[in-house]
Amino acid sequence: MTPDANEGMSQADMEPVSIFALPQYSRWQTTEQRRGFELLRLAFFALKLRKLEWVRASATYIAREDYDYRCNLLRHVIFQQVLALSDLDARDQALQLINACRSSTPS
User: Fold this and answer.
1) Which residues contact 66 (CB under 8 A, 6 or more apart)?
2) What is the separation of C-alpha 57 from the centre of its chain, rounded to a whole number of angstroms?
3) Taking Cα atoms as reference points, which of 39, 54, 24, 29 lies closest to residue 98?
4) What is the DSSP string of 30-94?
5) Smallest Cα–Cα separation from 39: which of 103, 105, 107, 86?
6) pLDDT tens track of the chain, all 107 residues?
7) What is residue 50's three-state secondary structure?
8) pTM > 0.85: yes or no
9) Which of 79, 97, 105 lies closest to 36 in space, CA to CA?
């Protein structure tokens, strides 16, 4: 980028983007917004785990070590999400969501 192209950009626009953190300028306005986002993240991870388990049950091309490693990582993330949602008074919703994901069939 040339110096002229940077002229209209703020410092927040030029900060590097990381997959581990949201940009500083997109903060949740309410607890309800954060709760919804955390429930969405939980659903994503729970469905990824369900799909991994389903693929392993229907095919044998996944190495056992790789399968165990991935499942352990996803279970750890799901546990962390439940803790975060417990802090937001949404533990019951989290457990309901996990149960719904367990009973679903991956597509």
Assistant:
1) none
2) 24
3) 39
4) SHHHHHHHHHHHHHHHHHHHHHHHHHHHH-S-S-HHHHHHHHHHHHHHHHHHHHHHHHTT-HHHH
5) 86
6) 444 444 544 554 445 544 445 545 557 678 888 999 999 999 999 999 998 888 887 776 678 888 899 999 999 999 999 999 999 999 999 999 999 988 877 66
7) helix
8) no
9) 97
